[in-house]
Amino acid sequence: MNILVIGGTxxxxxxxxxxxxxxxxxxxxxxxxxxxxxxxxxxxDLLIGDRDGGLEVLNGRSFDAVIDTCGxxxxxxxxxxTVLADAVKQYVFISSISVYPFEAMREPGLxxxxxxxxxxxxxxxxxxxxxxxxxxxxxxxxxxxxxxxRVLNVRAGLIVGPHDQSDRFTYWPHRVAQGDEVLVPDSxxxxxxxxxxxxxxxxxxxMVAQQKTGNYNVTGQAGTITLGDVLETCxxxxxxxxxxxxxxxxxxxxxxxxxxxxxxxxxxxxxPGFNLVNCDKAFADGLVVRPLAETIRxxxxxxxxxxxxxxxxxxxxxxxxxxxxxxxxNR
Length: 331
Fold this sequence. Notes:
The chain is an alpha/beta fold. Helix content is 33%, strand content 18%. It has helices at residues 11-22, 74-84, 132-146, 171-178, 197-210, 227-238, 249-254, 280-284, 292-303, 318-330, and strands at 2-6, 26-31, 45-48, 63-68, 88-96, 151-156, 159-160, 181-185, 191-192, 195-196, 214-218, 225-226, 243-247. Helix 1 (11-22) packs across helix 5.
């Protein structure tokens, strides 16, 4: 296949390009040339341009499919899809389960027929915690309007694995590998949900090959992996001597420890459906996930290549953890 990737040099885009090249596909990247510009030197056709007013470099070209990994503003997605409407067979838009409103995530089993969130002023283009989801939903609609019946919307959740700069999963393998007493939230039975970036990339390419369209939740297995599973597997893979101290939500709330960012994978009790999204449709259409141990091992291997002074974007410091553990034991 001849595939155009918008973006393509960071995390999911990188995994898609790696998988496509490994499978022998022809890949063209369209991006601004700012992130990892030399990553695929000599391996792909690179088109430098800005999707905001700089799409002319795409003129006169044709592809089997375009995979848009970095669309956040409906106007820009509409422009891209309009320019490519006669040049590609399929538009793959990397969306998010955040298209669903928070209220919908209070119940488990959220499926693709759930109504998406809306925003009062659809001209707003600033991406914030409040607008991110509705803007993604509008991006889906913009692509569909430009290429009706030819759009695949990939509603991903937490994507994990090598090259994830968010640290929203990497924190746990790294922290457990350090050993000693580890502060962890809720209980070992707390259910979590995520997908390895490489599994997501392979599934996307499979869907492109099948020219599948429509909306798909693709955020891993629901109701099968607990936080206890993650931590014990991290311990097994790293061979550490870590012990786990499970701290309840009232204590964490009292001490201003935030869900999701301070203690990744945990979202607290307000959104019990967040980690129980229904992905049956994706699994029925070929989604395969690798063993948890493999994801953890490869994440640790990649983490070891980062600078020692890497500034963590999620998780708590060892000093803050020790302080909280002391307060927990002295309560």
